[in-house]
Design a protein that fits this description.
The chain has helices at 2-16, 24-30, 38-45, 50-55, 60-75, 80-91, 96-130, 134-142, 144-148, 153-158, 175-188, 194-209, 214-232, 238-252, 257-272, 278-281. The chain folds into 2 domains: 33-151, Leucine-rich Repeat Variant; 166-281. The protein is elongated and about 75 Å long. By secondary structure, it is mainly α. It has 16 helices and no strands. The longest helix has 35 residues, at 96-130. Residues 11-31 are annotated as: Disordered.
């Protein structure tokens, strides 16, 4: 009992220092729930207190971030209001390891919270991570498809304009970043229309096919073959015809041998994966 009152005292004290429009009493009520003992939740929420990180454990914010999806699942989406402020505090933490931890789990949190809360509370955080350090961006990139498939179609289309930015990294030798992008684009083909694939994903795929690192190129051949398959099955035949003409123009007739080799490998993948009828291939 005495521990509970102490925790409430600590929690109220920290509320007084925030620039919230709520009174301390209202602020405390917004953190109250009936799923777990309130003292336990108050203890967890106090982990983001800067003084605690300095005196107790410098890694405490990272542990807090790691556990957050589990806490959210336990409390349920109806009690998300208890965690929202803590989540936003962690998402803007000075340590990139804390932000990276959240970036790797944001798609899991989106499933727990549902589409409305995701659109309102998680999408702004997700957008911030997209502009962060590569160590943080890789977290959202690895689960890009998992997150985008949970968004409304119109919201999802907004990210088409940003996919190109993943080709730029802090360190150009970070080829695994581009390899991961190619893997994710294969999955994203199912989420977008034929026109969107042709207009936005095709230029990125062609750029990846000409990458300096062979591991990136090999995944990109698979990406292009899947793109051919998807566009062939679309109701508008002009997209796949234009794509194949561009493959011939850009790679088959390339003045560099590496470009012509790329064309052969793409053809091989198209045949192996049965992406086109043979008469169309011919």
């Amino acid at each position: 009992q005495s521990m509970g009152s102490t925790l409430h005292y600590i929690h109220n004290d920290s509320d007084l220092s925030t620039n919230s429009s709520f009174s301390p009493e209202e602020e405390r009520k917004s953190k109250v729930q009936d799923v777990v003992p309130q003292a336990l939740l108050d203890q967890y929420l106090s982990m983001t207190d800067p003084s605690r990180a300095q005196t107790v454990d410098t890694e405490i914010a990272k542990h807090c971030a790691y556990s957050l999806p589990g806490v959210a699942l336990t409390l349920g989406r109806q009690n998300w209001h208890c965690l929202k402020d803590t989540y936003e505090t962690l998402a803007s933490d000075m340590q990139w390891k804390v932000r990276r931890t959240l970036a790797f789990s944001i798609h899991e949190l989106a499933v727990i919270l549902g589409d409305q809360l995701t659109a309102g509370d998680l999408v702004p955080v997700f957008n911030g991570f997209l502009k962060d350090l590569d160590e943080v961006r890789i977290g959202v990139l690895k689960h890009l498809h998992d997150f985008l498939k949970l968004l409304h179609v119109d919201k999802r289309r907004e990210y088409l304009y940003q996919l190109q930015e993943f080709l730029v990294t802090d360190n150009s030798r970070n080829w695994r970043f581009r390899a991961e992008l190619a893997e994710q684009l294969i999955l994203l083909l199912d989420l977008y229309s034929a026109r969107d694939i042709y207009d936005y994903l095709r230029p990125i795929a062609f750029s990846l096919c000409a990458d300096k690192v062979s591991s990136v190129r090999w995944i990109s051949y698979k990406l292009v073959s899947e793109m051919v398959k998807k566009l062939y099955m679309a109701s508008t035949p002009t997209f796949v015809v234009d794509l194949m003409n561009e493959l011939v123009e850009k790679f088959c007739r390339c003045h560099k041998w590496s470009g012509r080799q790329t064309f052969v490998f793409i053809c091989q993948t198209i045949i192996e994966d049965d992406c086109l009828p043979m008469d169309q291939f011919a």
